[in-house]
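thought: fold this chain, then report.
action: predict
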Amino acid sequence: SAWNGLGVLLWNGQGAPSNLTAAYHAFLKGAALNSSDCYFNLGIMYQNGLGTDKNETAAVESYERAEQLGHWRAALSLAVCYDTGLGVEKNCTKATHYYRKFFRDRSRWNDE
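observation:
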């Protein structure tokens, strides 16, 4: 989405100094339009406290929504969250589910 593109430019400081708060707000606007990329990037920002307060629970929620919308890396991020207990209670069953989903989906790239 255009909001994700703007957010990435603001995050990386391309064409202007990096502005993480503005990037965060751009991703919020894109997420409101169901952009999987924006939800995924919000997850990173919440996880690390970039442009907003650190909130591991919100990070997991953002990764979950990104995964539901088909973001290709969200399943791996969720697997790590459940594996390490980041923002959620450790859950080996869910971690394994998301690791398998990520690797199963990525292995299809070889078929294309």
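thought: worth noting. The mean pLDDT is 95.
final: tokens above.
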